[in-house]
Design brief:
The complex is a heterodimer of chains A (about 210) and B (about 100). Chain A has about 210 residues and is an all-alpha fold. Chain A has one domain (about 20-205): Cytochrome c oxidase, subunit III, four-helix bundle (Four Helix Bundle (Hemerythrin (Met), subunit A), Up-down Bundle), CATH 1.20.120.80. Chain A has eight helices and two strands. In chain A, β1 (about 130) and β2 (about 135) form a beta hairpin. In chain B, about 80% of the residues lie in helices and about 0% in strands. The chains are: A mainly alpha (about 210), B mainly alpha (about 100).
């Protein structure tokens, strides 16, 4: 047996020596990035092929969403601070920064609900119609907007629930289990922030690029 | 690994980069630019912000290269998809 051990191939070192959970989260995020990538690519194809697409800057308004972007960036900072706290074994800091991250996510969702309410009841933008300022634009504007921002909103909601679960068990991550669970959670939360940066630019900021507009 | 961390900018520095880039993006939309240069500027800044989040907040800069390859692969596939969709987009541009 000792001879077999001596001739055994050395085990390949894992990509993420800290935990397998981290590698699992990266692989999940790669798949999720494909979902968002496909949605954004098809959104771009529909948008730039349509000669009747509104200028989102004038129809959706970017003041609120720019602020929402800022809040999400702030919540990413509080998330890395929470991880720092967990690594230092500082339970009060971990709890405080997780609370702030949850607050940022919940605030973002509240702003999104406000925006959707305004668009549905104020502007009457539905899945079948995109009327703005007395002009009827391509209905695909409304469909793609609700699908993209809704899919991202579901991720934020999932993130807030995930954050709350970790917050409720915060003591575990400075004790026996170590901070890896907080790092895995952080990867998810930063990914949600990263995707919003792209959604904000592509859906809200880009000007009409169709040559007939 | 700790050496790399100590040489990297702090989280607050990254935060300020992200905040300034977000403000710059909003500012660009009010500038009297043609749509194509404006679009290029906005997409460039958004990709810069996304890279900052991935490299520093998600610690990709300090991980093994193979993990970066896992992260980059979906982006490459999406670029390929966009290129494949290009004929469909330009079809409607005919006069």
């Amino acid at each position: 047996m000792s001879q077999a051990t001596a001739h055994a191939e050395p085990a390949e070192s894992p990509l993420t020596p800290e935990s397998w959970g981290k590698l699992g989260m990266w692989i999940f995020l790669a798949g999720d990035a494909m979902s968002f990538g496909v949605l954004l690519a098809s959104y771009g194809a529909l948008r730039f092929a349509s000669p009747n697409w509104p200028d989102p800057n004038h129809t959706l308004g970017i003041t609120l969403t720019a602020f929402m972007t800022f809040v999400l960036i702030c919540s990413s900072v509080t998330m890395v601070k929470a991880l720092d706290g967990a690594k230092r074994g500082d339970l009060p800091a971990l709890k405080r920064f997780l609370n702030l991250t949850i607050l940022g996510g919940a605030f973002f969702l509240g702003c999104q609900a406000f925006e959707w309410n305004h668009l549905i009841h104020g502007e009457h933008m539905t899945l079948l119609a995109s009327p703005f300022h007395g002009h009827s634009y391509d209905p695909l504007f409304g469909v793609t907007f609700y699908i993209l921002t809704g899919f991202h909103g579901c991720h934020v909601l999932g993130g807030v629930i995930y954050l709350t679960c970790v917050r409720l068990n915060a003591a575990k991550y400075v004790g026996g289990q170590g901070p890896n669970g907080v790092e895995v959670l952080g990867l998810y939360w930063h990914f949600v922030d990263l995707v919003w940066i792209l959604v904000f630019t592509f859906v809200y900021l880009l000007p009409p690029l169709h040559p007939h507009l | 690994m700790s050496d790399s961390h100590s040489q990297s900018p702090s989280y607050m520095t990254i935060f300020w980069y992200l905040a300034i880039l977000t403000a710059a993006e909003v500012g660009v939309t009010f500038m009297p630019l043609a749509p194509v240069p404006m679009g290029a500027l906005l997409v460039g800044m958004a990709l810069g912000k996304a890279c900052l989040v991935a490299l520093y907040f998600m610690h990709l800069k300090f991980e093994r290269t193979t993990l970066s390859l896992i992260a980059v692969t979906p982006m490459l596939i999406c670029v390929f998809l966009t290129v494949m969709l290009y004929p469909d987009i330009t079809w409607s541009w005919r006069p």
